[in-house]
Design a protein that fits this description.
alpha+beta; two-stranded parallel ribbon; 4 helices; 11% strand
């Protein structure tokens, strides 16, 4: 399946989308086509992931984790999030389906 979306609604609501672009695709608009530059970007991401692994303890991560939902439940869960009924971070497991 494919998820086609935009971050614009999040920006309008003041939501901060934080993360590391760990996919680093090759030959896609906006990404370097020069091999050396691509390697530099990859190395930078590896350093960031290493820093996060050393800085964020499992206890710190679990303190901000509200719950995990599957991709099928995003629409339904968004209502509670928008009403302010959810505190913390909701993790979306894109590999899990409802009832699985």
């Amino acid at each position: 399946g494919e998820l086609s979306t935009t971050v614009f609604p999040f920006i309008l609501r003041g939501v901060r989308l934080l993360g590391v672009d760990s996919t680093l695709p090759w030959n896609i608009d906006g990404y370097p086509t020069d091999v050396e530059r691509w390697r530099l970007w990859r190395d930078e991401r590896l350093r960031i992931w290493d820093e996060l692994a050393c800085t964020l303890s499992p206890t710190a991560i679990s303190a901000i984790h509200s719950h995990t939902i599957c991709l099928d439940d995003v629409y339904e869960s968004s209502h509670a999030i928008l009403k302010g009924e959810v505190a913390g971070r909701v993790v979306v497991d894109v590999n899990k389906r409802s009832g699985a």
